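Pasting as-is:
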Amino acid sequence: MTGTLFGLGVGPGDPELLTLKALRLLRASPVVAYPAPETGDSFARSIVADHLCNGVIEVPIRIPIAGGAFPDETIYDRAAKTLSEHLAAGRDIAVLCEGDPFFYGSFMYLFGRLAATHKVEVVPGVSSLMACAAVLGAPLSARNDTLAVLPAPLPAKVLRERLRDAEAAAIIKVGRHFEKVRGVLNELGLTDCAHYVERATLENQRIVAIEAVDPATVPYFSLILVHRRGSAWRP
């Protein structure tokens, strides 16, 4: 009997936002895999660290993110081969993914390599969008508003075009692109209805006014929510 590959969404950082199903499967899986930087600890692993069982086989997937194209296809090829060997030996694998596995999650690259030949189950997780809206106390959208999700690495021209007609938007992966994004928001007159959050739900979470943010300090785990009709849900 072959094993099952479980893609577990572990949420935005607060360990209490791990779902009951993800926790059950994590505890039952003899192998746990997770993305990690080239050196240092894995953020995804840190979220579930208190729930890891003794004797579990850990498979860190070391992913360089500085320079070059991302994702690095050869790294996911090697990781898929390693995981395939565990699955063929009958071991279930829990693959950890920050947020939700299918919302810009790294798990999708393993899914694309293994789903055709192995049993795979995806367990949704709380995404950063929902977490940021919750800590801001500001709904993502209301009534019939449409919500646009825009990666900050997009060119300024594209961001400008997408935001110009957006009723509500979530700008993700801000990091080193913050100054560009802020410039576009200022051009479109959207600064007053935009909110910046970094490391939502973590102890070092910060909510800062857009104009007060130092671009040199913006981490990858940051997000800007924009809602033109920010009071649309109020009576």
